[in-house]
What does this fold into?
Amino acid sequence: MKKIVVLFVILFSVLSCGNISSTFKNKLTESDLTPIAAPTTKISVPLAGNAYSSKHIDGNRTITDNGVENWSNPDEYFTLYFRVSKPGIFQIALEDYTLNTGTAELEFTINKKSKLLKINASNTNIITIGNWAIDKAGYVALLIKGISKTDATFPTIAKISIASSEFDGTIAYVPNNEGNFFHWGRRGPSVHLNYPLPENKNAEWFYNEIIVPEGDDIIGSYYMANGFAEGYFGIQVNSKTERRILFSVWSPFTTDDPKSIPESHKIKLLKKGDKVTTGEFGNEGSGGQSYLKYNWKAGATYKFLLRGTPQSDNSTNFTAYFYAPELAKWQLIASFNRPQTKTYLKRVHSFLENFIPEQGDLSRKAMFANQWICDEKGNWQELNTASFSVDNTAIQGYRMDYSGGLTSNEFYLKNGGFFTNFTEPKSTFKRELTNKKPEIDFNKLP
It folds into this structure.
């Protein structure tokens, strides 16, 4: 009778461990290297599009289109990211690597559980690193550190394989470089807030406010307050010592080379503000560009005012003004004429992007408040609805660390940093009306 009771207690204890974490702990030990038979899921993750160096933008580039290479500094380590849609047990292996001579020892870590791997130059086969239990959906960070080496460099690592015999979900990562996605994938997803315009109303002016929270002013970030169908206007962080107010207008001639634009389609500078630099830009469309080097501060509220006035010669003048609380006045950034275009402001929106691939593992955020338009008759109207959208990196499912929405009574955008929770694209948000119409005397603008 005692044996029956003991067996019942043991059976009850086993059945009680129904949570995922306990199940995985029972099925897996840190030293478990059991091969996965007939995996239901197996992928090859290229480091070139999914890994980041601890050195970020400092020093030599050790992550190239070939993966991690020319890695000699033992203080430099790498983090590979992938996102699982559900829990599972995953076997990680070194799939595509090269060690020129001698031996090397590497350490691989997920969720503070580490495994050491010794590599010999004569071995070119896939090497199993170990199995890890991932007990929740979201991004997984695989840390790769160099422990020792007999050669001048650690191994070149092109790919890591991930396999599972039970996992039937999806894994988000950049699979290849088609469409230059090693570049775009490491930059991370760009996100937008689109403000619907009222029907039968000409938007000559668009007003918006932006606050970048302290700690979210990351190098390589562009926080666009006033986007429109023909251009963009916002602030960015160019380096540790330089920040800019940027205003650009695309040419109606589609090209990435500004030198190829016909004279009849070129953006013409009408006027610019004090200390503003103007010129042309390319690579992502082409057109006229202007910027003011200005040390804007995180946590402060900056105001943006954009004007679009159609002209009688089938062109439109676009003019941008910037208000800094430290200066307490409106400043002219620039005014451009766009030919082959006769329109008021259309598709007004805000935008957040990272333009330095090495910074794509860092999160950034911006708040957008008190959006208004004013028509050609001087009538103001508040815009309190925004829809959320994402770029092709997110649409492809390669990166899912993006979000947008409403906090307090401000819209926000966030991207990068491999956070787990994301916002569904096409989500719509509505804030309460502030009824705080901008107090601007248009006649006194510079």
Q: What stands out?
A: The longest helix spans residues 2-16.
